[in-house]
Queue: 2 jobs
Job 1
Amino acid sequence: MLATIQVGALAVFAVLFGGITVVGFLAARWRRGNLSDLTEWGLGGRRFGTFVTWYMVGGDIYTAYTFVAVPALVFGAGALGLFALPYTIIVFPIIYLVMPKLWQVSRNRGYVTVADFVQDRFDSRLLAAVVGLTGIVALIPYIALQIYGIEVSIAQMGIPVDLSLTVAFVVLVTFTAVSGLRAPTLIAAIKDTLIWATVLVAVIYLPIRLGGYAHIFSLVPHAKLVLPSKSYAAYSTLALGSALFLFLYPHSVTGTLAASSKKAVERNAALLPAYSVLLGLIALLGYFAIAAGIHPSKAYGANSIVPALFERFFPGWFAGFAFAAIAIGALVPAAIMSVAAANVFSRNIWREFFRPRASAWEQATVAKVFSAVLKFGALAFILAVTTKYVLYFQTAGGAWMLQTLPAVFLAIWTGWLDRWATLTGWAVGIGWTTYLLVSVGFKTSFYTFGFLAHTSLFLGMPPLVANLIVAVGGTALLRLLGLAHRPARPIERAEFEVDLAAAATGSATPS
Amino acid sequence: MRRRNNWSLWLLLVPFVATLPASFYNSVTPSVGGLPFFDWYLLVWVVLTAVITGLVYVLRRETPSGGGRQ
């Protein structure tokens, strides 16, 4: 879009980006562990306390999605884009209900991935593999969204996009391979500082330049400040669906399992909303851009408005700072996502189906190679799919991810479901979702359902309902016929609640 | 093992009811500090949800015999 190179911005950007690259490689030495072991490479040795977990999980969920995709939707589609607020509000009660239990049972039984849990719970390698594969495939568009976020901030500085994106990409691939989860965790601390600084400056300084909040909102057409009543269902289902799928994604699970205690996980359900405040403020940048009369760029459309807004109003050096915040804010989750997907591939596909006797070294090596392959898949996705709102990359993956809800979230609360019924439910849900995504060409995540009085909904929800009906109905039927499967190693209720090793040795310390 | 205080989990439903039906808050007025009602209502609920989740955590904390700190 810009012919001129923004020298000041570029210099600051280069220094910050270079700095975190160095940190990424040095991270391998932080809290040193044997990085050719998968728990060490892929879960940081399960040693992260409340605070580290807070900013790492925050780094996981507040990404280029937040900075680029949400304001773009607010800019283009108005209040519909604010679905991100109810989404990031209700996700915390959901986290509180399932993640501490998942953490505890994973600790007791040594799970590294959510598929490990599914395998044990249902006594089914196949169900574990399909849940794992769903996570891997669903992460491709989500990682693509991150790379896209890096791309729009680079493009705003007027430097050759292909070359610089390649550099950023190589940095991402190599430091993930070398340092595993430690790299993005350590960088997440820097990233958070950059992002908080950028956002606070943006929500204070930009309104001053634009004549105050009241003036900004008076310049936004009324139709963009509220929802048309025909969009209520789309808004609510996208918010609810997003909140339900977010913690089914493998990287959210990885972030949680890397915590050092169940308490750290529970506390985080109450501490993480601090990031939602941030997200709410960033969403408003979409309105700021309307008030400032920012024109969407030819190449990136509405998705480029936040970088364009920063470039217009910030001095060059601070624009570079903000672009670095966005790019690093995309790099961290992209790394965590690919580590998480690689963990799943290595443990639940490679070891389970191809190399049962794979050594710890082999598992870790396979994971490292796979994490690189996956990032190329994401790059290919960007080239293959064009969408007006890049936000729909995340919700497309989420619509798939949602179909693992019965096998994961329901199974955390109950051992009642049968493996074949759950697998059939998954197949119905995935089949229908994929059909819908393909029929809209991945360009949007809404679909108007003729049989539901032509209501537009988040397209993952009706398949989820069908999925649940099949899983629950099928289980009831199999139980009635006495054909339901009994797992070989059923998980006791207590295994979700207390540390069995500590309880057995009587070493539980009073709280 | 002592059972945790599970009735307090119902409190977690409140944010769903308050934020999912947009018809509750689909309005520009009353605005606060220039922010439309739609926007500040949701920002307030971010804070309230953190309070509610924190409260549930405190209410359900395990009693000394129940479990351990990390």
Job 2
Amino acid sequence: MVAFNRRNHDGMSGGVPLRTTRRVCRLIICFSFLLPFPFCLKLTECMAEPPDFVRDIRPILTEHCFQCHGPDETQRQADLRLDHRQQATTKLPSGSIAIQPGDADGSELVRRIETDAAAAIMPPPETKRALTPEQKKLLRQWIEAGAEYVEHWAYRKPVRPAVPLTHQSSWPRSEIDAFVMSRLEADGLKPSPEAERTTLIRRLSLDLTGLPPTADDVDRFLADEQPNAYKKLVDYYLASPHYGEKMAQDWLDLARFGDSSGYQDDGERPNWPYRDYVINAFNAGMPFDQFTIENLAGDLLPDATLSQHVASGFHRLHRYNEEGGSDPDEFHVTYVVDRANTTVTTWMGLTFGCAQCHDHKYDPISQRDFYQLYAFFNSLDGEVVISKSNSPPNISVPSETSRPQLDAFDREIAAMDARIGEIEPTAAPAFERWLAEAKDADPKNAAVEKRGAIGGVVARSSPPAYYADTRFDAPLTLGAPLTAEGKIAVVRSVNNEVNVGYFAKENRQGGHHLGFSVAEGPRFFAYVGLPDGTRVAPAAIAAEHGVEYSWKFHYDPADEGLLTFELYRGDERVGLSEVHFTAEQRGAGMMLDAFGMSYRGFNDADAPIEMYVDEIEYTATLDGTARQENFDREPAWSDFGNQQSGHRFGYDASATSGHSPADLTVEQILALAPEQRMKEHLVKLRSHFDRETFPALHELKTQVAKLRVEREEFLKGIPLALVWREMATPRPAYILARGDYRQPGELVERNVPAIFPPLPSGAPRDRLTLARWLTSPEHPLTARVLVNRLWKQFFGDGLVRTPEDFGVRGELPTHPELLDWLAVQMIEDDWDIQLMQRRIVLSATYRQSSTVGRELLERDPDNRLLARGSRFRLSAEEIRDGALAASGLLTRRLGGPSVYPYQAETYYSDKEDSPGEWYWPVAPGPNLYRRGLYTFWRRTTPYPSYQVFDAPSRGECTVARATTNTPLQALVTMNDPTFVEAARVLGERIVEEGGRDTVDRLTFAFRTVLSRVPGAQEREILSELYAAEFDRYRTDPAAARSVVSHGFAPRISDGDPAEIAAWVAVATAILNLDEAITRE
Amino acid sequence: MTSTPLPSSLRRRFLLETSGGLGTAALAALLAQDARCDGDTKFASPGLLTSTHFAPRARRVIYLFMSGGPAQMDLFDHKPKLAEMQGQEIPKSVIGDQRLTTMTRSQASFPIAGSRYKFSPVGDAGLEVSELLPHTAGIADKIAVIRSMHTEPINHDPAVMFLQSGSGVTGRPCMGSWLSYGLGTENANLPAFVVLLSGPPKGGQPLLSKYWHSGFLPGRHQGVQFRSQGDPVMSLSDPAGISRNDRRRIVSAVNDLNRLKLATAGDPEIEARIDAFELAFQMQTTVPELMEIADEPQHILDMYGAKPGEASFANNCLLARRLIERGVRFVQLYDKDWDHHQELPAKLPVKCRDVDQACAALINDLAQRGLLDDTLVIWGGEFGRTTYCQGGLTAETYGRDHHPRCFTVWLAGGGIKPGIVLGKTDDFSYNIDEDPIHVHDLQATILHCLGIDHERLTYRFQGRDYRLTDVGGHPVERLLA
């Protein structure tokens, strides 16, 4: 049996339980290339040196001791803390001293790890963290040697190290190379020769733009014999607009950018203006400190520009839960935690999230530190549980063409408002006087009228009648039969502005979607209101997704005064209420006042059933008891049930005969007591007055109102970006016991973790200060984390191979001095990313061939020493982009909304719910061939081929994607419609553009896909394939016709289908090569 | 054309795990296993574990997941006293400080809704099973019923994630992924972790691919959904006009060219790519054959209630048997629409009819083939339902809200003691009186049956060692045979 826990990344330091003989032979290999810190070539030297704290000791302490004797105060046993030398060497309450520097035998730690006594041995057996004999020996040796502690490297500010001198001086082109060479020399290794020029251009193009080079670019580079040809090539790709796309793709993984909400319903949440912002920022060469500030605090910048507001949407990109019944408090905390963790992972490369529940067990980050940083991100002025995709705060992002139109609207409206403002001081007092005179009008007639207009129930809030009752055209006395019916519209709002009042959901294409949907659970109550304020005959139904409800009302005095109220779910009756009115009631000419329906929101614990009948608010509880209250306040939109989850509701006003207050005539309104008049009534009166008395003013007001409506309509075609808006008063933040939102503890202030440099005194404690602090030259991590990611872009791995963890459990840098040199340089370069990238790709290190011989592979399988160039698989999107580029199908347009490339119709077939809600409108046209980063990103069910090629779900911040190698990937590149079509079109191009004979055509195909010419053996293999396929398709023309018809793209060749089909087979083979999906 | 063979140690290392993230783990495993024989691992690799921690009692798992949360008191947790208390308020002391969903939180009244179904004791242990599950009653002596499961989340999405991955937060590997990572697959031509959904969808919560995601484990440990519509596996079929022979020739050419590349570039990853293309080619044949249940004898189809060509839970149960027969490690069957907030009496019987016969048939079929001895079968949802009625209780109908405090799960097969009932809830099926079993305990037990110490199958990600059971869990000894 073996231990299966993963060992430390830094190789042997965890103490691998090997027999000594075996260890000897491994040591030579492992120590010499896995370990970045002082290493040696000979075993004897190794053994002679005292253990190194960083390499040998801290990993043991971290793995085996810190759980109980580390930074986490709540878990600490026996008051012993082993992560601080001072505390570890202090006398304990028990009287003993854990570590006596220089005296292993006098150290309690040594005694406890070496004892056989079950009760005393450390670590306790139940922790299953037993030490190996070698680990015990190392600890003993370390204490004997003085028990020196070294502060973790990543918490120290980087200092520019001296550039090492190397024996070999002709190879290094730059400081980078000197660091790499010095390490290689110490290891007795030589760098690899420079890669072929065809490899270099392909490598550069892929690394800087994510796309393979065009054949023309390759030709131009190969023909350029000037010494600065390569340098010019670097400039060329850095200047490419596709550079921004490449950089954005990686950043969007960190930013957890998706197009959907990411939880159960996973509705759309488009925010592509943010993606455009990122592309543009990189293309414009925005310095990283500025980029940081705009992402974390763009909204707080003085006179923030539109794009800075859009940038502040970075922390709106986390997932949002739309599931019915979700607790807003719970998800508020979830989101803020995500923002804090994402910030730290992205800028500081630490595993901050561990401190959500308890002090970090390994890194010196306390739970207090966690919530102090959390506090910067907890005051978003917006809803928590949403259904509305781009929920507020948001901002309209007009395009260059729509901006002037919008400005024109604003100018015109402002001009009219100014003219209104001139007349208003005269008109307003006149209106007041007129009203006062009208007050004395006899209300009697109107009252009778009103009585006749049974119902007239409206909601008195600014969104129009979302909550109407039905009223009858004629007085409903109980003496006559009556029938009425209508539909119940259950609405899930996607966009408040659009939906309220329409009770329809605007779909992406601007049409109205009449399949209503709500989350499970809301209840509708039907009732009949009587004039005495009581309510009878409640019937309840629960609304479900995508189901249409309707109601029928029927009253027949002849049928023993039976009044029925029925509710239907589709055609099925799901609710029935019956009331009998006695002959007495009927005989007395009793009249029904109204009937209506009510809704219970399910996200507000105290939400009563509210209904408004004849201007009387009834508040009912679920058991059906109703009480009457005077309607003495304006109900706010949020009063209605379920603001938190955003599920709106109401009647379909068009299906019933719902009326608004404005339906009362001027005379009827004047008849109301002033205190009974609603806002809408006053508007109507004023309008009437103006028309009669100030016709010019009336005309202006009419015009401006019309313009405002037109402006609103116009805005609907303009995308909304999610942005940050800070609450006027920040929410208090508390330490949450065990990270549980139900257990707030101590109140904390905004602050940064204590081990880092403090915030500047006097600066406001806001995100802007935080962002500036992150990019201050004093910060030990931001620059290192950034250059490490940039390094990874060009070598497949960072200098720190755990780019997400620079803490004590992360890997040590392979080239610590180089990392620090680059980090300091980054700061001195004023955070110029392109300058740093140029440095890296101009180095000799970068230009090495990635070909690896067996000896070097044995010595350094992971290329930690950089004695060769890196060879790694492309990302999911790049693999697709490459096939599209090779076929010539690629649409090179930048930016804009997400697109829907080929996806099997059945892919969402197991997704239930409102049909069409997850539609995927594949349509012929250029949007099928956009680059991968524009593909609509459904977070719970990502695009199938990307998922297979290890793209993340973007549900959370991802620093590094895995690169696996599976049969499912082969199925994608062979059979996925995008790849099949690319092969077809490439096959046609081979015939059309590749010359006449087979060798020319093979050369064309190879150059197009792989940027190089084929070798003789390669030509032979593919010629055989071509010949075999051509024979086969000649005898099966139907199959050939099928092959040349793949995909929506128009045919580009009218040549012999058999010939083309055979070339399609060859194209398929080339597109499927390892080399085609690999950057080498 | 032949490839230049790599040193076996390197080859093994690269075949074991080709991901950057796992390289170190695999290396550590290799270093630790100094005397390990040099077998051909390929994609039928035994996974990270080359031997299990204990003698495994089960080699594979079928999880019958009832998404939405079946009502335990209507199926397995008989509470006769509730019938007497029908319509009365559930005592406040029973609810205690229970967090309710915002769907019922604001109810003024919490009337007790007893089950309207008859229960009869069956089997040697006298397990009380509802009349809705007559076939399950018939296998009472083969299953172990836990009536005292409890979980933490109260909404579907987090609760499903919690059961699958040990955490309500998205991003952790699911159970099948852990097993794929730990144990690998026994069939090179099939994925280790296969997911089947009862189609066509009829309602209930969506089933999202994140429920079978490998989280931070490498992508090849992801569950692969075998679909009832279209290609059983995405992109499985060759495009029109490409015959099997064409495909064979293309794959051969690709691999010949890749071998040339391997000889010059020296990157062992290319060899893994060559294997991948061969396996993909084989999968194109084996998977459609496997999905073809029409070749099963009629009496087997009848036993499950399976109808070839239809998408159903019954068909999936039969497919699950075929999958594990072929060495798939973990088969996850999802059935949905068990979320009966309203109209439970109209909906629950339908769901029971959907699954009851097929579940029992699966157990009996596995048993008669001798497969039940080393196959672990689990049945259950993500949480239970409330005893109090959601909304108004009427004579005709009632509904129940989510209830994480107790629910029922049953297990059968390898490693499980058959015919037992474990755990007891209070008179209201609301709180657990005896033997509470947390989701992490269930997960630890499942791993235990497969020979794995749940605390020792870990993966380091972003500085922390993660495991399926998060920071909790104990195998439930009393369930073990």
